[in-house]
Amino acid sequence: MSRTEPTTQGRTDGPDDRPATPADERRTADRRTSERRTAARAAWTNPLRDPDDRRMPRIAGPSGLVIFGVTGDLARKKLLPAVYDLANRGLLPAGFSLIGYGRRDWSKADFEEQVLEAVKGRARTPWRQQVWDRLAEGIFFVRGDFKDDDAFDRLADLTRELDETRGTGGNWAYYLSVPPDYFPDVCHQLERSGLAAGADGWRRVVIEKPFGHDEASARELNEIVNAVFPESAVFRIDHYLGKETVQNIMALRFANQLFDPLFNSHYIDHVQITMAEDIGLGGRAGYYDGIGAARDVMQNHLLQLLALIAMEEPVTFNPSELQSEKLKVLRATSAVGPFARTTARGQYTAGWQGSEQVRGLREEDGFDPESRTETYAAATFGINSRRWAGVPFYLRTGKRLGRRVTEIALVFKEAPHLPFGPGQTAAQGNNVLVIRVQPDEGVLMRFGSKVPGSAMEVRDVNMDFSYSEAFTEESPEAYERLILDALLDEASLFPTNEEVEESWRILDPILDHWASTGRPDDYPAGTWGPDSADAMLARDGRAWRRP
Ligand code: BG6
């Protein structure tokens, strides 16, 4: 069920007069919890505070976070530092509790030390001993694997104890930072041990990608998760949506009059969405080999960017309105074929990354020397809507490319008439609006301008907005924003099950085509991808931007 679908409001029996199933009962309990919460919030409303004023800091209410897969890379590099940063900014409640769950034989003190190490290297906010001391009081570890009934029972006992001693109030978010193969076990255990639902408080599950490897497997996973947690309690992470610049797409389009009226096929020739990384895949074979660039980031981050650029204006920014606009545009999107001509894929070989000589994918530790996994993917998409019909959206991503950059470029059509002499506009290209997602976050407009002098000659110039120059505030790390949102039940920045399934529906035909056609083309590390990617755009009379 999606957040946008009607629920079985006000009834404990199932829809269509059938007897209530456990899922119906869970939904009813969930609705009651949500009503109780709304009433509680209303009772505590500060009459001097404007509820619509989004500038007020949003502070999570009493709650705790359990992280499964806490010894993994993501937890160490992103989640634990984000928790500290939230505490440091004063956005977590006083009795906030963090429970790590894993197989290591760690005591509370051992885990505290691990968290401290992760935080010290990576937190964005300055070190404050006092903040750490308070946070550390609420840090706990439970040892066990995902099939261990006893360990989950101990986890349940611990959460109940913390509800009493630290005032977490039965409000728990479970962060599944584990491969999807483990989702069934963890969900089953959360249900069996009574952790998934409770008489008091809320229970939510936060899920990391990859969410399946095609549409069918995503549907299966959704069924497994939704059998235990109603969709309103499921928060699927796409960390790109937590990035400041990605949220700025909505501000740029819908807070201004200058841009959005031009976002359509009358003015836009095509759109290029690029996510380039200079890093290689050493150390990530376990996750990446057999997955590849399209599944790793195109299915989620890049298609989400496409949805935000192409969607219609939501009625409001509440989660269901925003998600339904994204879903609408994803439903209208499909991969454009024939794929032999409209897509390209590559795999990096040894080369120079700046001044460093680096290995090719097939020589990286852990990768199959015969690996066919693509580290570069480019594809063409079309949107069947009045606004976008006929405008190709070219998406590309790759590892070991020239440099790290994520950007969305809207390339305009040529002016319908140029009242200049031959040669006067020869040095002018198409106008371009570039949203620089990272690094060097900002927005750039490229347009023609007269070259000073007595002759009329037009050449391209840049008008550049840079976040770091315009604002003094530093953007929070995406995971900080998303963890806080999950604790606050603010679902706008989390894709729903339907969005995930739609994205796979869009991508699957390309993946099937690639699976049946040989191996990816080679490209040397440090370059901008395989020649076939340039040829793909050249066939349409276009070229990739060199960011
Ligand atoms: C992850 C991918 O989702 O995003 C990684 O799995 C990728 O392969 C990462 O490196 C990039 O994130 P960011 O925020 O550095 O652009």
TrEMBL record:
<feature type="binding site">
    <location>
        <position position="239"/>
    </location>
    <ligand>
        <name>substrate</name>
    </ligand>
</feature>
<dbReference type="InterPro" id="IPR036291">
    <property type="entry name" value="NAD(P)-bd_dom_sf"/>
</dbReference>
<protein>
    <recommendedName>
        <fullName>Glucose-6-phosphate 1-dehydrogenase</fullName>
        <ecNumber>1.1.1.49</ecNumber>
    </recommendedName>
</protein>
<dbReference type="Pfam" id="PF00479">
    <property type="entry name" value="G6PD_N"/>
</dbReference>
<keyword id="KW-0313">Glucose metabolism</keyword>
<comment type="function">
    <text>Catalyzes the oxidation of glucose 6-phosphate to 6-phosphogluconolactone.</text>
</comment>
<feature type="binding site">
    <location>
        <position position="296"/>
    </location>
    <ligand>
        <name>substrate</name>
    </ligand>
</feature>
<dbReference type="InterPro" id="IPR022675">
    <property type="entry name" value="G6P_DH_C"/>
</dbReference>
<feature type="binding site">
    <location>
        <begin position="145"/>
        <end position="146"/>
    </location>
    <ligand>
        <name>NADP(+)</name>
    </ligand>
</feature>
<dbReference type="Pfam" id="PF02781">
    <property type="entry name" value="G6PD_C"/>
</dbReference>
<feature type="compositionally biased region" description="Polar residues">
    <location>
        <begin position="1"/>
        <end position="11"/>
    </location>
</feature>
<feature type="active site" description="Proton acceptor">
    <location>
        <position position="301"/>
    </location>
</feature>
<dbReference type="InterPro" id="IPR001282">
    <property type="entry name" value="G6P_DH"/>
</dbReference>
<dbReference type="InterPro" id="IPR019796">
    <property type="entry name" value="G6P_DH_AS"/>
</dbReference>
<feature type="domain" description="Glucose-6-phosphate dehydrogenase NAD-binding">
    <location>
        <begin position="66"/>
        <end position="248"/>
    </location>
</feature>
<keyword id="KW-0560">Oxidoreductase</keyword>
<feature type="binding site">
    <location>
        <position position="243"/>
    </location>
    <ligand>
        <name>substrate</name>
    </ligand>
</feature>
<comment type="similarity">
    <text>Belongs to the glucose-6-phosphate dehydrogenase family.</text>
</comment>
<dbReference type="GO" id="GO:0006006">
    <property type="term" value="P:glucose metabolic process"/>
</dbReference>
<dbReference type="GO" id="GO:0009051">
    <property type="term" value="P:pentose-phosphate shunt, oxidative branch"/>
</dbReference>
<dbReference type="GO" id="GO:0004345">
    <property type="term" value="F:glucose-6-phosphate dehydrogenase activity"/>
</dbReference>
<feature type="binding site">
    <location>
        <position position="277"/>
    </location>
    <ligand>
        <name>substrate</name>
    </ligand>
</feature>
<feature type="region of interest" description="Disordered">
    <location>
        <begin position="1"/>
        <end position="57"/>
    </location>
</feature>
<keyword id="KW-0119">Carbohydrate metabolism</keyword>
<dbReference type="InterPro" id="IPR022674">
    <property type="entry name" value="G6P_DH_NAD-bd"/>
</dbReference>
<dbReference type="GO" id="GO:0050661">
    <property type="term" value="F:NADP binding"/>
</dbReference>
<feature type="compositionally biased region" description="Basic and acidic residues">
    <location>
        <begin position="13"/>
        <end position="38"/>
    </location>
</feature>
<feature type="binding site">
    <location>
        <position position="209"/>
    </location>
    <ligand>
        <name>NADP(+)</name>
    </ligand>
</feature>
<keyword id="KW-0521">NADP</keyword>
<feature type="binding site">
    <location>
        <position position="103"/>
    </location>
    <ligand>
        <name>NADP(+)</name>
    </ligand>
</feature>
<feature type="binding site">
    <location>
        <position position="399"/>
    </location>
    <ligand>
        <name>substrate</name>
    </ligand>
</feature>
<comment type="pathway">
    <text>Carbohydrate degradation; pentose phosphate pathway; D-ribulose 5-phosphate from D-glucose 6-phosphate (oxidative stage): step 1/3.</text>
</comment>
<dbReference type="GO" id="GO:0005829">
    <property type="term" value="C:cytosol"/>
</dbReference>
<feature type="domain" description="Glucose-6-phosphate dehydrogenase C-terminal">
    <location>
        <begin position="250"/>
        <end position="545"/>
    </location>
</feature>
